## 1
Amino acid sequence: MKADVNTLTHLFWDYNKKYFGNVLPTPYIELFDMPGKIARFEYHKNGNKAKKPIRDQIIYFSKTYEFNENTMRDVMVHEMIHYYIAWNRIKDNGSHGRKFWRMAMDFNEKYGLNIQILLGTPLPDKPPCFFNKILGFVTRWYGSHTTTCKDEEYKVTRSQSNKVTK
Ligand SMILES: [Zn+2]
């Protein structure tokens, strides 16, 4: 199914309640058409003393990508983790740094989600264990996964890294 603003807004409200303690103000939600990009979170930073840490937050979703219910959920929660990190002024080492990964992995384990970083080339049912490994996360999921995983499937190529969704 194609993304539409009405559905996305309701998903945002739903996941905000379920996964983020309902702390995130409703952002602008817009469709975009950028080759290789499935979704994106954008915002402007306010100064350190400002009451609100960021403004003009927008979650973009591809208008052409064929989502299913799970990918739409996983991609939305992925973008909302970016939002949560920015909203709470959490410092991370990179846009998909350790804090981001910790949250994504926690959600994957706790709620059975499949949040990934390499969303340009979705690997259904194949979690990004390559990143998991280089970032040094060991999770329950990862332990059982290593018994069936062939590492080379997950190595990031240049063409894939162009498609990393922010
Ligand atoms: Zn991202």
## 2
Amino acid sequence: MVLIFGKLKRRLNFAVTNVINAINFSILYDRTRPEIVDEEKEFHCDQCDKSYTTINSLRSHKVKDCGRDKSYKCTVCLKSFRRKAHAKSHFDNIHRKHM
Ligand SMILES: [Zn+2]
Ligand SMILES: [Zn+2]
């Protein structure tokens, strides 16, 4: 009986250790994950140079963030840009060719 209990206890310890390892692993994984995702930003805003890991972040950026304080407007089509350089490159790429 003592022997069986001893085996059971060892099995239990093993199971507990596995669970702890799994928890530790998931914590480590969660910590490293954002950095990995950061390097793979796939959703680029077409109005500015920002990029996001999820389409939802990009959408919320476009709604809340990107529309604000656009101070540079294209003089031809009145499209707005947050950065002067973007307005200039837009002008060069889109309009200058046709002039
Ligand atoms: Zn943007
Ligand atoms: Zn334009």
